[in-house]
Amino acid sequence: MIQSQICFACGGEIFIVGTKTRLVKCAACGLGKTLDEIRQNYNSYHRDTVYFDSEKQFKNIFQKRVRLIGKFRKPGTALEIGSSSGLMLSLLKNSGWEVAGIEPSKEACKVSRKRGITTLNKSFENSKFNKETFDLVIMNHVLEHMENPNDILERINGILKKDGMLLVDVPNFESLSAKIWGSNWKYILPQEHKWHFTLKSLSYLLTGTGLKIIYAETHSGVWEYASPAKELFESLTGGKKRFFGEAISAIPNLIVSKLGMGTGLTVLAKK
Ligand SMILES: [Zn+2]
């Protein structure tokens, strides 16, 4: 059953997308929601091995985020919520940031600590931080999993210093791939993802919690990487299928990304 017919982000009207995935969507801001009953506890699905196995690829992706952060902010203190194996934080640390992570997975925590990253083994919901502690908070593919994004964003606002920044990465629910695949889109993941964000819905949520978007971009395929050329080269060793897929789709993906319809959405917001 749908408890409310009104979008909690913008107040728009909600409609049902498909019965198969039990998904609803806001007609005004595009926010999607997976209905509760099929979602699982975080412990049954966190994806440690994906990060461990594809570290080279993720390093190239995260390097792009670190570069973006550097365009807006000098190094200071940073917290990553859902920091997994600490790869992104280690890149930030290398560029002068003082970093800490918070990660519910024990395995990932171990790897992160081995890298020399201070990592708390708990969920953000169960943690406490002093007010105005961080210059930067990062949430990489985390917000879509969370029960109550509003509360989370309000708390983040509280722990950010004045002029502090929040970097959010989520799958883009208004991407071309989401439109083409509908309820079969690879990021629907009904057992894991509660929310499906668009730039508009994120913007409503962030503004409502006192944060203001200062930069947004979408990206697909090789354009998700700091170095698309490096990814193309490395995909050659990852099997011909991956290489040809990346190469053939490079130009269409560039156009789609520039139109705001890339599969990934990166948003920087400021307190
Ligand atoms: Zn809405």
From TrEMBL:
Domain of life from the UniProt record: Bacteria
Residue ranges that the Swiss-Prot or TrEMBL entry lists as coiled coil: none
Gene3D superfamilies per the UniProt record, alphabetical: Vaccinia Virus protein VP39
PANTHER family on file: METHYLTRANSFERASE TYPE 11, TRANS-ACONITATE 2-METHYLTRANSFERASE-RELATED
Protein name in the entry: Methyltransferase type 11 domain-containing protein
Organism of origin: Candidatus Blackburnbacteria bacterium RIFCSPLOWO2_01_FULL_40_20
The organism's taxonomic lineage, starting at the top: Bacteria, Candidatus Blackburniibacteriota
